[in-house]
UniProtKB/TrEMBL annotation:
Entry superkingdom: Bacteria
InterPro entries registered for this protein in UniProt: Bact_HTH_transcr_reg, Chorismate_lyase_/UTRA_dom_sf, Tscrpt_reg_HTH_GntR, UTRA, WH-like_DNA-bd_sf, WH_DNA-bd_sf
Ranges where the HTH gntR-type domain occurs: 8-76
Protein name: HTH-type transcriptional repressor YvoA
A GO term for molecular function: DNA-binding transcription factor activity
Keywords: DNA-binding, Transcription, Transcription regulation
Keyword tRNA processing: no
Segments passing through the bilayer: none
């Protein structure tokens, strides 16, 4: 199972094999996997190597350690690390997505958005993003009516990025703030749950290649179902 002569590190081979077993259902969601000692004997590698492989899988949200009990398989999270639409992420993961429109109307541009959108009217779009029959995210989007021409509720069951592409807008990047939110009664209703759990909320300006803000989005995600990976690099010459 492990080729110790391979240029691929042993811990990485081990990590891939454990992930493969989870995918095949050898260990199912919520199930405790073999102990470090058992894995060490099975794969004939050191416990330090086992610990390194398991540590990376824990960081990636594949496994979770419970003190005194063992290491368990996590319910898979939606993981976003690139500038992709939510629809693209789900499609690439092979899961099913349903967009449920909760609110769709034309409103006067909110005062806090006047500096961003100097227009009289904007669309307000409130949607739940349902993955494999479970609500993972709620998104509230504001986009100038002048940018989109005609949009109806039926179109919004698909990808907003694709709708914008139809109108000639190519999304380049976003500027976002991120914060943790406590699940209150309103969010319990939105997500259809009874127990409290942490939420992750982003407020984003979605920008095209010309530096124009196309829409503003407030997105709230179940943090037990969604992972946002942020890569930060220091620009050369920024600090001296």
């Amino acid at each position: 199972m492990i080729d110790k002569k391979s240029p691929i590190p042993v811990y990485f081979q081990l990590k891939e094999d454990i992930q493969r077993k989870i995918t095949k259902g050898v260990w199912e969601v919520g199930q405790c996997i073999d102990s470090e000692r058992e894995l060490s004997q099975t794969y004939e590698v050191s416990r330090m190597t086992i610990r390194q492989a398991l540590g990376e899988l824990v960081q990636e949200g594949v496994l979770i350690r419970q003190k005194g009990k063992g290491t368990f398989v996590c319910d898979p999270k939606v993981k976003q690390k690139d500038m992709m639409s939510f629809s693209e992420i789900i499609n690439k993961s092979g899961r099913t997505l349903e967009n449920k429109v909760l609110e769709f109307k034309i409103i006067d541009t909110p005062q806090e958005l006047i500096d961003i959108f100097p227009f009289e009217k904007v669309y307000k779009i409130n949607r739940n993003r349902i993955v494999d029959n479970e609500c993972i995210a709620n998104e509230i989007v504001f986009i100038p009516v002048d940018y989109c021409g005609f949009i109806n509720e039926e179109k919004l069951t698909g990808s907003l990025f694709e709708i914008l592409n139809e109108f000639g807008y190519s999304i380049d990047h976003s500027k976002s703030t991120i914060k943790a939110v406590i699940m209150d009664k309103r969010y319990k209703g939105i997500f259809g749950v009874t127990e409290e759990s942490p939420l992750l909320q982003t407020l984003s300006k979605i920008i095209n290649r010309n530096g124009k803000v196309i829409f503003v989005e407030e997105a709230t995600y179940r943090s037990d179902k969604y992972m946002l990976e942020v890569n930060i690099s220091r620009r050369e010459g920024f600090l001296k």
